[in-house]
Predict the structure.
Amino acid sequence: MAGSQLTLTVSLVMISLFAVAILGYSYGFATDNDAALNLANDDSLSSLNVSTRSNLSTYKGESEETYRSIVNSSTGEGSDVVKTAGSFSITWGNVFGITKNIFDVGYKKIFGSGDNFGIFLSSFFGIIGLMIALYLIKTWRGNP
Amino acid sequence: MVDYLYNLPNSTDLDEISTDIITITPSLSGFFLFVVFLLFFIGGSTRQKIRTGTADYSAWAVVGSVAMWLLALIMSVRSGFIQFDWLIISVVISIGSATWFFLDRKVSEI
């Protein structure tokens, strides 16, 4: 597993970019070759493609804002830590949400929409959420 | 006259032979893709482990699944070679392998 907040963020973003790239290539391939089977005909993959693209676009805007707020911030004399975790939390929500969407669609395609294996997804996102929370608190407040 | 257990495919056209065989055994194309994935995944990681002592399993899973996905794309051009579900599952497995790969990277590798 990833070893730092930056590593985990980059991992989640790369997962999203990979999903967009592979879906985009599949659509382009089907259109260029006039293929009999086109992934664009699958509703859930199409909506995943659209939502991932829009989430990535939002993520880009918010990460720019985060960057700007970090470079514009100042550390006063005698202060040790910032009062809120806001500057860390902005860029996290989106990438976590994108990964969750990707997994949700993939899970439904393989296991169906029944709830027999639901505990697998719940546990996986539980542990990812816990990792994010621990990385945040570790980055913000030091070792818990 | 030999009594076959299945209907013999029409052997006048190469494409027809393939589509007839796949019509008789619909899971054939899916298992063909699965074998391609396992060939890269098990073959690659085993050889790497023999050579270097360790194997990058997630990277080989990505290589295998991308190879499988590209073959599935090529097979999807003509109808009858592959079922739509197999194409979707090949994409889903590729994204799943990539998720494993990117979460598996160490601090020094990304």
Remarks:
- Chain B touches chain A at residues 69, 73, 76-80, 82, 84, 87-89, 91-92, 94-96, 98-99, 102-107, 110 (CB under 8 Å).
